[in-house]
Amino acid sequence: MQRTPKILIVSPDARLQAEVAAALKGIADTNAVLHYATDFRQAIEGIRSWRPTFALVEMNTDLRALKSFADEASLASPETNLAAVFSADLFGHDISESAILIEAIRAGMQDFLRRPVSRADLEQLMERLHRKAVLPAAVATGKTISFISNKGGVGKSTLAVNLATGLAVRFPQRVLLIDGSLQMGVCASMLDLKPAMTLTDAVRDRNRLDETLLRQLAVPHESGLHLLAAPKDALEAAEVDEEAMARVLTLARRCYDYVFVDTFPMIDSVMMAVMDLSDRVFLVTESVVPTLLGMVSLIRVLDSLGFPKDRQRIILNRYSSFAGNLNPEDVADRLDRDVDHVVPYEKQLLIASNIGRPYVLDATTWWGIGKVFYNMVADLPDIQAQNDPARNGMVKPKSDSALEKEAPPS
Question: Does a structural domain hold residue 1?
């Protein structure tokens, strides 16, 4: 019976691609489909969208980067088997081959392959990895929800804080909000928190960062939400790069059921790392023509990057139906996308942000903006898998005007 494995080759060296292709030609009953990635970021995108059977990853001396890649890959596609490809002289002639193999395993590789790649070695590797394939359900990870926009001031942070808080009320200690608006983070003030530690501390401790340390760096809120605050200033913000952000998000998904990320309105390498690991992206806009024109450009960028449309949601924020204002249908026409959620203008929402108490804590789910928040939470990935899906993420009303908090599921 012919096998058709999907193999991703991760290496900037075109010669490795040729070696693998040549070795595969000599393996009977195998018609492999090959894809290539020249760096880890491109490889993660390929693993997430293509879910290859095997990923052959060329090692270099940066084992920390290799481990970070392995962690992300295991979250993106648990069923993909990772094998390190190396040359015997990788770490110098005074380092034994067994030491190289140990380092590969420590970095998260499941097997290894020596260069130059031979038919026999590749065939044996494929047989071994087939036998110890990882089941997708074996790794349980949380979901990442990010909020992005083409400009500041559209209420993106307010939405992120309220949705994260609303879900945390239902599932205390299981929701994390990361303020990734690196130079202009406001989530802490909206929650009336004064965190001693920030995202920068996680970056500075990246060599020993694990799930336990990440929870220690996050500050708890009375709602049950945890916050990893934005850097204190622009100098600290400069220390957060895409590799560090990817590592923080990867670890956060292991600690929490849901990880919300507020972002800075600019597409850069850090933003790309956030989007790569996002299961849902809320695109926040307003019914103002210049803002909509910018959102059209942002959507085109996402399309050019191949970001899946089914992971995107359009939010029309602060909508008011006065004469001359664009209605949701007009907005949808200009964006050439459906508007998924319409958030009405609500003065009390602004007041709540000023006093540091999220509006959702006192909102009813029966009408107005509270009902919109409820619908947005219900739209989150995998939310129906949680207990009592009819009220996930929101506070359950006793009546139209009085609220009570539900107990978390057992």
Answer: no
Q: Walk across the sheet containing 280-285 and list its strands.
A: 219-220, 226-228, 175-180, 258-263, 143-148, 280-285, 312-319, 341-344
pLDDT of residue 131: 67
Last residue of a domain, one of 120, 138, 156: 138
285, 389: one domain: yes
Range of the domain at 46: 6-138
Could you give the CA distance from residue 356 to residue 354 in angstroms, rounded to a whole number? 6
pLDDT tens digits for range 232-288: 999 999 999 887 888 899 889 888 999 999 999 988 888 988 988 899 999 999 999
Phi, psi of 108 (to 5 degrees): 105, 5
Q: Please count the structural domains in the chain.
A: 2
Evaluate whether residue 121 is within a structural domain. Answer: yes
pTM passes above 0.85: no
